[in-house]
Amino acid sequence: MSLLIVGGTGTLGRQVVLQALTKGYQVRCLVRNLRKATFLKEWGAELVYGDLTSPETIPPCLRGITAVIDASTSRPYDLSTIKQVDWDGKIALVEACKMANIQRFIFCSALNLEQFSNIPLMEMKQGIEIKLKESKIPYTIFRLSGFYQGLIEQYAIPILEDLPIWITNENTSVSYMDTQDIAKFCLRSLQLPKTTNKTFLLGGPKGWVSSEIIKLCEQLGGQSAQIKQIPLSILKISSNFLGFFEWGQNISDRLAFIEILNVENNFSKSTIDLYKIFKIDPVEIVKLDDYFLEYFIRLLKRLRDINFEDVQKQKNLII
Ligand SMILES: NC(=O)c1ccc[n+]([C@@H]2O[C@H](COP(=O)([O-])OP(=O)(O)OC[C@H]3O[C@@H](n4cnc5c(N)ncnc54)[C@H](OP(=O)(O)O)[C@@H]3O)[C@@H](O)[C@H]2O)c1
């Protein structure tokens, strides 16, 4: 089976590429910047130029392809292109896939779309889900929760750099997940016909509230956090909450993102059922504690090495 991966340079996409190559798939990546994607070529993927904002570049990328995994989205620093990428571009992609008789389309969507259709990206994702179903291309949709990878910038780094961390006054629980595990689900679905034409809500095994993540980072980093709270009522009337969706932009966007991905409704139970469908043992799933532990160990080792090099340099100067 030959795969086209869209968004292969992204946080999730790169894990999908790596695992697909490891599993022996023929992997092609649609990329808009060939130089930036060199690492994917070094891993063994074929690179082909394509840009979702230029629909005419899409059909040639699909020649000889059996299945498409779409893990692309407009970059948070590039919000002006959100409609061009996440709406016009995705419609063009789905139409091109239909013309090319693609046998499977895996679409990465987001949790709780219906409750937040006032947020443009959520509305677009919901619309693309509908277009995909209407296209009659055999599909699998994953509605994803937050990624562990985003938590480093949100919690670990501010604690280490003694910067404030903003949280809401609600105990919002999010079942974050490692992108390596999400990639596992995406690829497994290609081998499981019963996952065709289905939508799955995918999250990690445990819901985490901000205060728990902060405590974990404080313990591992050996430093206290500066916590600032914003009442949820204020967040909800802020224009950013209504206008944007992606974290990393600013505080209210990030908090809005957490509110969107909250898991009030027995999510963990449905997640465990999901693991059964995909024949994935929950023990294999990386836990947030372990993810952070590995991060802090690597970071502290690096800091020790840098410190060691500095001492050596100073010694050399003295000599
Ligand atoms: N991050 C989360 O916590 C989260 C939560 C729920 C759902 N999701 C969804 O999961 C998916 C993956 O998210 P992510 O965080 O891994 O995304 P990401 O790191 O922001 O990566 C986005 C990818 O899309 C590509 N892209 C952007 N504009 C493009 C264009 N015009 N043409 C072609 N490719 C383009 C980027 O390429 P460049 O490298 O060239 O920019 C990059 O490869 C997305 O659908 C996202 O909405 C994410």
From TrEMBL:
Protein name, UniProt field: NmrA-like domain-containing protein
Gene designation per UniProt: ycf39
One GO term (biological process): photosynthesis
Cellular-component GO terms for this entry: photosystem II; plastid
Keywords, alphabetical: Chloroplast, Photosynthesis, Photosystem II, Plastid
Matches recorded under CDD domains: SDR_a5 (cd05243)
Subcellular location: Plastid
Organism superkingdom: Eukaryota
InterPro entries named in the record: HCF244-like (IPR044256), NAD(P)-bd_dom_sf (IPR036291), NmrA-like (IPR008030)
Domain NmrA-like: 3-237
